[in-house]
Amino acid sequence: MNNAVNFKFSFETDDYEAIHNLMPLLMQKIKKLQRSHQGYRTIEFNIAKPARGKKTACLTIHHPDSVVREDAMDESWEHAIETVFNNADVSAQHTIKLG
Questions:
Q1: What is the pTM of this model?
Q2: Nearest residue to 50 via CA among 11, 7, 8
Q3: Distance between CA atoms of residues 37 and 3, nearest Å
Q4: Per-domain boundaries in the chain
């Protein structure tokens, strides 16, 4: 049985300094996910190029039998990341069962 956990990150930005500054926040948030999303297999996190002045964060958490997906847009990456992870914690009880 494969017990590996996979992490996929996609950053659509030219601001390399922002990526370096955001990684500690991402690692802190992922560590907290272990409490509310036990048994996950894959975490996908994306930040997208700002559209209409808003920065977008997208988080997808794959469990063996469910998926949680959250998106957030904000003026700052930090707020978008906080929102997307907070929403994922709230929706942990409302995941879509796949089987």
A1: 0.83
A2: 11
A3: 15
A4: 6-97
